[in-house]
């Protein structure tokens, strides 16, 4: 008789959701197998050096920002940080203007010289009355009026989502604030920093524990019936887990076009948005984001797609309805926990996924007392 490996937890997906849970559970004494169908850990936050030796984010630019001291201090166990405040310009009417819309955006776009106080009056004068803010159009026209909406939001959103802003929940464009001052940072969070040696190194540190085994290039369905395990933690798309039995839950995809240029600098800031021209939404230049010095530079163009790897849940009422049906199925599976952006169909940033995983760990700890014994076969 031969003893086989026996895992207390099988975790599907080695992104933030799966890796945080693997680290927490292993630290609490559980034996964990974490499986990812991709050839690497880190999920969409994975980074690597490209052929030119530039650190890139293969799945698009990932900038870490959070207001949560708990999340920041938890991740600080696995990485040092480099302070970084992201700046974005939008290419509009032949100029590159700050987005989020601020005092300088308005002054430069319209050739004005307003003060912060006057721009507040300006916004009030152009804003459209919206009785109840429901959609992504309502949010913007209700704050800055139709012209700024058309120039900065309508085209970008239609490209990014394949939907008009009036068809998307308010929460989507509400991610981007409006400012009356000259603050041109994309985020206003308390903590804004990048892992000093990159995300992948941080994930390696999280998963480097004798209780954690990592299996890559493997869809969990290939091994789930072969490897004895206790509780399952699933971080992939929730509809796929249930074989799309209620139909496909829409996830928006992207195609990334990576380029390296023989120049030290390609553009003026980390990201330039193209709301109205081209098939891509934005170009990001990694060296701004990572702080790397290199004589060449690498950039990525993002082309939104309906089909392909699932990247974004699509926040709108009919999708929330369909997700509810899958959520009910998920809740009826006591042996499985669903966590992360794809499995809970939430447009979460990295820090929100970490917070969700930490909260899930606490719940699992309360619930799990007994652990299965080694199985003899
Ligand atoms: P994921 O990272 O998607 O991990 C899920 C993993 O599960 C994947 O690796 C997948 O391969 C694996 N998997 C799925 N199904 C299976 C299966 N059947 N078998 C085995 N493995 C499976 N957030 C920020 O905070 N700041 C940003 O600047 C930012 N920029 C972003 C830019 C883009 C283009 C995108 C798409 C997202 C961005 N995000 C950003 C969001 C961030 O990527 C997510 O919040 C975070 O990565 C989600 O982690 P997760 O573990 O839930 O999911
Ligand atoms: N958005 C826009 N114009 C911009 C930037 C953002 O219309 O210049 C809208 C668009 O709908 C986008 C959403 O605001 O999907 C959220 O923007 P964010 O930069 O947070 O998107 P992400 O980085 O998650 O792709």
UniProtKB/TrEMBL annotation:
Keywords: FAD, Flavoprotein, Isomerase
UniProt-listed InterPro entries: UDP-GALP_mutase (IPR004379), UDP-GalPyranose_mutase_C (IPR015899)
Cofactor: FAD
Entries under Pfam families matching the protein: GLF, NAD_binding_8
UDP-galactopyranose mutase C-terminal domain residues: 151-347
Family matches, as NCBIfam families: UDP-GALP_mutase (TIGR00031)
Protein known as: UDP-galactopyranose mutase
Lineage: Bacteria, Thermotogati, Deinococcota, Deinococci, Deinococcales
Gene that this polypeptide is encoded by: glf
């Amino acid at each position: 008789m031969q003893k086989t490996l026996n895992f207390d937890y099988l975790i599907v997906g080695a992104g933030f959701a799966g890796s945080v849970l693997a680290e927490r559970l292993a630290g609490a004494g559980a034996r964990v197998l974490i499986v990812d169908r991709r050839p690497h850990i880190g999920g969409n936050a994975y980074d690597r050096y490209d052929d030119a030796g530039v650190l890139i984010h293969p799945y698009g630019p990932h900038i870490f920002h959070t207001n949560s001291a708990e999340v920041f201090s938890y991740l600080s166990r696995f990485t040092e940080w480099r302070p970084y405040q992201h700046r974005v310009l939008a290419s509009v009417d032949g100029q590159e203007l700050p987005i989020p819309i601020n005092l300088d955006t308005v002054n430069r776009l319209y050739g004005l010289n307003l003060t912060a106080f006057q721009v507040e009056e300006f916004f009030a004068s152009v804003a459209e009355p919206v009785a109840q803010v429901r959609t992504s159009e309502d949010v913007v026209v209700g704050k800055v009026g139709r012209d700024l909406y058309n120039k900065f939001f309508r085209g970008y959103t239609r490209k990014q989502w394949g939907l008009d802003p009036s068809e998307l929940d308010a929460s989507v464009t509400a991610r981007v604030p409006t400012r009356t001052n000259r603050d041109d940072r994309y985020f206003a969070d308390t903590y804004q920093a990048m892992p000093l040696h990159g995300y992948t190194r941080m994930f390696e540190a999280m998963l480097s524990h004798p209780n954690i085994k990592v299996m890559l290039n493997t869809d969990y369905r290939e091994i789930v019936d072969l490897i004895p395990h206790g509780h399952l933690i699933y971080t992939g798309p929730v509809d796929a887990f249930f074989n799309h039995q209620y139909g496909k839950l829409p996830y928006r995809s992207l195609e990334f076009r990576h380029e390296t240029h023989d120049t030290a600098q390609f553009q003026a800031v980390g990201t330039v948005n193209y709301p109205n021209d081209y098939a891509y939404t934005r170009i990001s230049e990694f060296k701004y984001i990572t702080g790397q010095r290199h004589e060449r530079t690498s950039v990525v163009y993002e082309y939104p797609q309906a089909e392909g790897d699932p990247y974004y849940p699509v926040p709108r009422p009919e999708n929330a309805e369909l997700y509810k049906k899958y959520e009910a199925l998920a809740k009826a599976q006591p042996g499985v926990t669903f966590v992360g952006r794809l499995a809970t169909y939430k447009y979460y940033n990295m820090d929100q996924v970490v917070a969700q995983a930490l909260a899930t760990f606490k719940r699992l700890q309360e619930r799990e007392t007994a652990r299965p014994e080694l199985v003899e076969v």
